[in-house]
Amino acid sequence: MDSCIFCKIISGQIPARKVYEDELVVAIEDIAPVAPVHLLIFPRRHIVNSLDLHPENNALIGHIFQVAAHLAKERGVADKGFRIVNNNNADAGQSVFHIHFHLLAGRHFNWPPG
Ligand code: AMP
After folding, report:
1. Which residue is closest in CA terms to ligand 1's atom 20?
2. pTM to 2 decimal places
3. Which active-site residues does the annotation give?
4. How far is the CA of 111 from the centre of ligand 1 (A)?
5. Largest CA distance in the chain
């Protein structure tokens, strides 16, 4: 999608600190981290958010969680704890409308979230 910032990162039009990529997904360092580990994992395919998912995307979402677990282990935070966050629309604070999953770790997170 032409105006999408994550599509532009995928195509190389906008620079990003890529930490992982495969045929289905890309993971980058968040430009404004809110935790010592703050990565974003998103599919190469432009999907707006969870409301735009279809049964054929089920394996993709499972894959994203496996990539998140892999990255948590790689960063050494898996055992201590990490959070995977997916914001959908305004009240949740979604600001980039290309589905993505935040991998947050390296500090204690409160519950309920703010
Ligand atoms: P959300 O608010 O859930 O839509 O998350 C979007 C995230 O994308 C925010 O945490 C932003 O800091 C991050 N972000 C926006 N633009 C970029 C960029 N060019 N490179 C890396 N992260 C970005």
Report:
1. 31
2. 0.98
3. 100
4. 22
5. 39
Separation between Cα atoms, residue 12 and residue 88, nearest integer Å: 25
Q: Is residue 102 over pLDDT 90?
A: yes
**Cα–chain center distance at 40:** 3
Interatomic CA distance for residues 35 and 53, integer angstroms = 28
Is the minimum distance from the CB of 87 to ligand 1 under 6 angstroms?
A: yes
- What pLDDT does 29 receive? 98
User: Domains of the chain, with CATH numbers?
Assistant: 5-105 (3.30.428.10)
Pair 106, 77: CB distance under 8 Å: yes
52, 67, 88 from 28: Cα distances, Å: 22, 12, 19
